[in-house]
Amino acid sequence: MPATPQALAVQGLFIPLPVLREADLMTRETGVRPVIAYEGADIRLTHVNGRLRIETVFRRSSRGWKRSDYQLFQDGERRPVPRSWLEYHALVERLSADADAPATLPALVPISDSETLPVEIRKELRQCVTRLNGRDDISVCVGRDAKGRYVLAVTSSKATLHMAFETLYRSGRKGVITASTNPVRVVTTEGKDLTDEVEGKLSKALAQLLSGHPSTSATDASTGRVQGAQGGGPADRRGTVQRE
Questions:
Q1: What is the pLDDT of residues 124-136, one digit of tens each?
Q2: Is 186 in contact with 161 (CB distance < 8 Å)?
Q3: What DSSP element (H or E) covers 86?
Q4: If you ran DSSP here, which 8-state letter would residue 105 be given?
Q5: CB–CB of 181/151 below 8 Å?
Q6: Using an 8 Å Cβ cutoff, are 165 and 150 in contact?
Q7: Cα–Cα distance between 65 and 14 in angstroms, integer?
Q8: 188-217: per-residue pLDDT in tens?
Q9: Which end of the chain is more exposed for a tag (fewer CB within 10 A), N or C?
Q10: Bridge partners of 45?
Q11: What is the CA angle 109-115-120, rounded to 5?
């Protein structure tokens, strides 16, 4: 049960309602309750969740207690504040427990040959193969991650790209939509996570895999964010991601 200002006041520390609401929100979203402390006339909330830390400062004004500062730190380094808790969860999801450990992508479960892929996946798969323009040094396949999501994996000697899709049911038909968290991820063979650099854009993600090849440029890849499947291209391929 969330604490109340009266309960905390009994403990010798009065906490204004806006501060408690912020603390309760953080707790609901992450399962971790922040530490609340007075700093002079201000109140600071410190929320630590694995390698992430949120610092929130409340200051009293003529209109009551207001949030005056909000910062996010990763491994002690300041980072841009996520625009939503969904973005925050996406960041937590892809961070390894050890800051010094190389980044990894989730292992994929193979798709059975007897399973019919949703039409959106088949179209996206064909289009992805088309964008690669017959490159036989890059593998393209579809599997499932631990959440049961479909994942289209593209692997080169430089990096691996994952595009994740969530299942959606409409009018009794099973389809897929772009995953709500980490829809596009890229990790190099050296273990560097380039997800933030590609900004969720398929063109940037494919450019990381195709860079350095004389017959392929970034403009060969389709531009824009992954919005859903488009048609056209060679036959489907599916299986598990091949690690280099």
A1: 888 888 888 778 8
A2: yes
A3: helix 85-94
A4: P
A5: no
A6: yes
A7: 13
A8: 888 888 888 887 777 778 777 776 544 344
A9: N
A10: 36, 56
A11: 90
